[in-house]
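Example 5.3 — Protein arginine methyltransferase NDUFAF7
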Amino acid sequence: AAAAARLCSGAGGEAEAADGDGAMLRHLARKLRASGPVTVAEYMREALTNPGQGYYTRRGGVGESGDFITSPEISQVFGELIGIWCISEWMAMGKPNTFQLVELGPGRGTLTDDILRVFKQLASVLSKCDVSVHLVEVSPKLSEIQAVMLTGGKVQPNPEDKSAYMKGVSKTGIPIFWYRDIQDVPPGYSFYLAHEFFDALPIHKFQRTEKGWREVLVDIDPEVPDQLRFVLSPSRTPATQNFIQPEETRDHVEVCPEAGVIVQRLASRIEKDGGAALVADYGHDGTKTDTFRGFRNHKLHDVLSAPGTADLTADVDFSYLRKMAQGRTATLGPIKQREFLKNMGIDLRLQVLLQNSGDTATRDQLLQSYDMLMNPEKMGDCFHFFALLPHHRLVHPDKKDKPESKSPLPPVAGFNELLLK
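Solution (predicted structure tokens):
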């Protein structure tokens, strides 16, 4: 299922020049010979985001010609329903007069584009609200693609404001800003979206042994020059002491400290300024062990082979994200993608689109993309939704004292069954 999640579309990415493929491996081999084994997290960071040879900085392979396709690329309905989720929560929270849409790792910009289309269609609802879009993107290549998709390429560098490195106006007239770090995004009432974002953050891997926990490291293979291999740390590493929970029952554990830091930042922002965060990714609730894998040309790829030329990813541990919210916000989920989309009314939306589509090819495409998103064997069961919301969104502050005095809070869309009146 996890392999299906990255979607075998059959369209292969263009092979990079052979020299480009080997440059990252040579760089890593020199580093390992000089300073010894590195953590899996450091290996991932180099392979994915090294400024010169990193996979995301150099290729950014999203889409049919890349190494994987994501849900927004499969169907416009996915992004439309996320847009409706944001508006539904904004209304449930009393329609604040400013609204920042913040996407972490926006890929090609397809999700934001679909959401902005919904905002345009519901312009009368949002008319008194000041809406802006804020994209957190480290890849220069991807930010260019996003700019073309969202603004038609009408963007300008932003030297006077040091936090955003680029700005523009969407085709629907909404201001858009680009940042390298979530901390640069201005504070304010915001909806944070992280779709297939956390799975690419660097993980530490740990193995339980007779001598206690040991960290899995990446080293050069002494038998085969320029080939990498996994080794166990000879003793406990700082990460082993900091990241393994005392109550851990699994024998192999993956921990993503960077995800923990980001969730803490999101939780403190939501606690202070309101809004919500919606995370959609493949993952588990603290049950899985070894999920680290690579994808290249829509096929599984050995994680240690030709670094910098493949996407590296690991399942998100939602139980860890919940722990890292530290009670600052309420958390909902994880629930399976097919349940969330069903609750959001995907079946109804599909019927409308099918009725409005004139030709068989479009209808087939709609049904195929629906199947890809909802089928338990494809993305329906391995992708999950998880949300951070202010506590008062789920419990009235003074409900404890006067339970009868307040009207019931509206259910959170997607996480409760939608009752169509």
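Remark. The chain has one domain: 37-393.
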